[in-house]
Amino acid sequence: MNANGHGGPLAGIKVLEFSEIIAAPVGGMLLSDMGADVIKVEPPAGDPWRAFQPLGMREGRGYISLNRGKRGIVVDLNTPDGLEIIHALAERTDVVIINYRPDVAEKLGIDYATLSAKNPRLIYCDNTAFGRKGPHAHRPGYDIIAQALSGLMTVEGRREESGVPMMNGLPSADISTGIAIAWGISAALYARERTGRGQCISTTLMGSALAIQNTRLMSIEAVDTEPREAALAKINEMRANGGSYKEQLDVIAGVRPTIGNIYYRCFKTADGFIAIGCLSTPLRRKLLCATGLEDWRVGKRPDEIDPTDPATLDFCADLVAKAEALFASNRTEEWMRALDEHGVPAGPVRYTEELLEDEQVLENDFIVSVDHPFLGPVRMSAPMIQMTDTPLEAQGSSPTLGQHTEAVLRELGYDEARIASLRDTGVLGHPPS
Predict the structure, then answer these.
(1) Active-site residue 389, yes or no?
(2) Are 71 and 39 in contact (CB under 8 A)?
(3) Alpha-carbon distance 106 to 128, whole Å?
(4) How confident is the model at residue 4 (pLDDT cuts 50, 70, 90)?
(5) pLDDT digits (tens, 9 = 90+) for 228-284
(6) Per-residue pLDDT averaged across 33-62, rounded?
(7) 194-200, long-range: CB within 8 Å, 24+ apart, which pairs?
(8) Which of 174, 303, 314, 365 is catalytic?
(9) To the nearest whole number, what is the mean pLDDT of the chain?
(10) pTM exceeding the 0.90 threshold for the entire prediction
(11) What is the pLDDT of residue 101?
């Protein structure tokens, strides 16, 4: 039960999570926010993400941010005693989440076929980097590789000073996969209520990376085939001749060119930056009214505008220059006031670090505080959705390494002597500090 006296929508659901790094931990954390009892299984060395931005005591910022509300146990799955513990847990659990390399689960004896034979109602979410077929199926993968293979890395066009591609600032393939994991499991739980049967869910970093760029990926044969093929032929020629990444990006940008964009972008103001979002003709007219700018293109059909016409290109370049100079002439606050008066969607550009004290964030309870056993209060993002009858709630901090091992074993019926023996033989790692 949460603080409001209600159980979350997944109260009573038991989840066994075999996860590392980001994607699967995010999925498990979202289920915990919904009230599920999530037990994260770590090897004696711990999830490698504990070492990311380390804080000492085998804790790290990355791990703490993605594993809140879970119970943590340490079990050496390479031992018969360790596997016995896991099989006992799997028999009484509702959901298993795993994101090991494609061959690891079967070798360890925690694959879907093995566990579902013991528990036919089991819902098993198998997350891989690239799927179980194809030339990359056997390979381990991380967000940066999924971004590269899926084209997601090229969307923002970020590059190092040396000119090589740079991954996007957020692990978008990982995070979107974590959301897909929680979404798929929730749907499978609903299906099980009707059929009584569990099932296997497959999620992938690459599939998620493609899904979140679907508009860019989509191809309409009648209008997209010729320009896409021409651009790819030119890029392949550049690759063969050592062309730069910037030159290749310019070719791709020309497939669906956007000219004279003053309606969906950021502008520099006198004291900061402001974002404008006008994606309809009425909103574009409101922006023109608020700024006094004129744009003959607004309200015309796309086939009435020739994006290659020199006069059009000159007009667009001049319009952008005027808009940039205009926004730079006044402060962000003044622009926000003027844009609000005209109903123009806009907002100041903020840094993430500012948002812990942001009025909009605080008024809507977008921040939650949890108490970490070693580090004390930790403020972080709250559950991303809310529900009236079964409200979500952060169930606590991330677990320290092996924090709940003994408690979980007692729930399985292990006595103190057996637990001590397993500890002595290294099956449970070292005692939590």
Answers:
(1) no
(2) yes
(3) 14
(4) very low
(5) 999 999 999 999 999 999 999 999 988 877 889 999 999 999 999 999 999 999 999
(6) 96
(7) 196/121, 197/120, 197/121, 198/116, 198/119, 198/120, 198/121, 198/122, 198/123, 198/124, 199/123, 199/124, 200/112, 200/116, 200/124, 200/125, 200/126
(8) 174
(9) 94
(10) yes
(11) 83
Residue 6: the pLDDT is 56
